[in-house]
Amino acid sequence: xxxxxxxxxxxxxxxxxxxxxxxxxxxxxxxxxxxxxxxxxxxxxxxxxxxxxxxxxxxxxxxxxxxxxxxxxxxxxxxxxxxxxxxxxxxxxxxxxxxxxxxxxxxxxxxxxxxxxxxxxxxxxxxxxxxxxxxxxxxxxxxxxxxxxxxxxxxxxxxxxxxxxxxxxxxxxxxxxxxxxxxxxxxxxxxxxxxxxxxxxxxxxxxxxxxxxxxxxxxxxxxxxxxxxxxxxxxxxxxxxxxxxxxxxxxxxxxxxxxxxxxxxxxxxxxxxxxxxxxxxxxxxxxxxxxxxxxxxxxxxxxxxxxxxxxxxxx
Amino acid sequence: xxxxxxxxxxxxxxxxxxxxxxxxxxxxxxxxxxxxxxxxxxxxxxxxxxxxxxxxxxxxxxxxxxxxxxxxxxxxxxxxxxxxxxxxxxxxxxxxxxxxxxxxxxxxxxxxxxxxxxxxxxxxxxxxxxxxxxxxxxxxxxxxxxxxxxxxxxxxxxxxxxxxxxxxxxxxxxxxxxxxxxxxxxxxxxxxxxxxxxxxxxxxxxxxxxxxxxxxxxxxxxxxxxxxxxxxxxxxxxxxxxxxxxxxxxxxxxxxxxxxxxxxxxxxxxxxxxxxxxxxxxxxxxxxxxxxxxxxxxxxxxxxxx
Lengths: 315, 306
What we know:
The complex is a heterodimer of chains A (315) and B (306).
Chain A: E1 2-3, H1 14-31, E2 34-35, H2 39-46, H3 51-72, E3 75-82, E4 87-93, H4 107-121, E5 127-133, E6 137-144, H5 147-155, H6 165-180, E7 189-195, H7 205-214, E8 219-224, E9 230-231, E10 240-241, H8 246-256, E11 260-263, H9 266-281, E12 282-288, H10 290-312
Parallel strand pairs in A: 4-5, 4-7, 7-8, 8-11
Antiparallel strand pairs in A: 1-3, 3-12, 5-6, 9-10
Helix pairs in contact in A: 3-10, 4-5, 4-9, 6-7, 7-8
Chain B: H1 23-36, E1 55-61, H2 73-79, E2 83-88, E3 94-100, H3 114-129, E4 135-141, E5 147-148, E6 152-153, H4 154-166, H5 181-191, E7 197-202, H6 211-220, E8 222-229, H7 231-234, E9 241-245, E10 252-256, H8 260-283, E11 286-292, H9 297-305
Parallel strand pairs in B: 3-4, 3-7, 7-8, 8-11
Antiparallel strand pairs in B: 1-2, 4-5, 4-6, 9-10
């Protein structure tokens, strides 16, 4: 919460001033205390009502003053507003290592369901693109608002082939920059790169990452899988170790200003997608919430006055 | 102020004095008091033993040491043995006055202070007490210690009482142990062996347990409890937010007298307190006379005794 005119917070000084004034009034009354032999009876009557109850009106009034002073300073709340034209490209590795079952149920299914959940959850205005790659980026969906197409494309993904992370990243960047041509204001864009292994073919992803950094497109990377993940089909029939390559991915994220994650669980993947979607798809905006404070102040004021009239018959 | 111990000071500020005490009114009160204490006056009450008097109690043979003036010629002649007369003793009434001088007595919002009324009661009763050869003893409490004047008769008693009254009431301060009404009444129990009249003048706001010694005194003496109070102690006036201070223990209470509920509760609590007081006095066998600072206390005293 922030304040548009914080100088009015000085009105909060009314509180200590009020306390001081009360104390001074109390001292004055005590100076002119009335000698009264039946004070004991009065004290016995007063002790029947608890002390805190006698303080309620003053407390309510103090709270009312606080709320009104805060309202005067025009408090603002930061809310996430969906951004028009925000674009996210999901890059999904579909190399053969995605068949590994170290992530429930297997790596590709986890990535698929996380991507679907992401589609269902992001703001409607947001454009989402998809690049699936193995030896080459073979499926390229341009950023679109059509969620159903993307979902069907996701369903059709199969895991086979090598890993050409660099090429995929390059294609994704191209699909984003196409949309930017001829536009003065760049809509916010981001890339989520999900991979589960070393780059085995194509260009060096680090170089492409530098290009993304120049274009100011953050690439968040997700290294999926556990170090002891295996797929069948080694040269001699033994299982083939397919550990993820978090170092390279981390490096890509660092260069482009994105975030790097290492995931070995499907639910975690969901959370990361969600987070990236929120970061790109929404913009923090300050909304004034003065009315709420002023209303609360008025209610408290009315409450304080009512209690004062009810219990002490005076303001 | 509250931490200071009590001391007898000059008459409290605002003291008006007891006001006029017309002789006719005092004489009328005398009659009322005589009627109340009937049975303790010569001829109306059998004293203990024998003594100087006018009424014959018995004749008995002369013994060495007897006053020869008491020889009865007729009886001696009739019997041939010297006889002496012995009379029923003329019992002079001793009036024991217990006066509360605690700081709460220095309060009054009507014609005069409670201490003024108490002073008037003590003066009138002591004036009546010295009639018919009676003796008066004044016991004061509330000034830090219980003080008792020796029982005396005649003008000397009146003078001693007046001098004691002129010292005034105690200054504000906390009560001390052995200084309350209970201590004074206990002291009186030790002093007053012969049946007499005990007049306790107080506002009976004393926190000490004075009911027990008063009951003990009531078994032997006629007890008159003159309760002095002020209309402001019965109900609060609407004076807004005020701080009240107790003159006895210095306790300060901030109270909103503007609240009708509070005023009603206070009046109820005070009425209950006075009911309890009446009950205690009734059980002690004491006659309760309520005197008000706003009214003619002499009249009220007479009515209370009538």
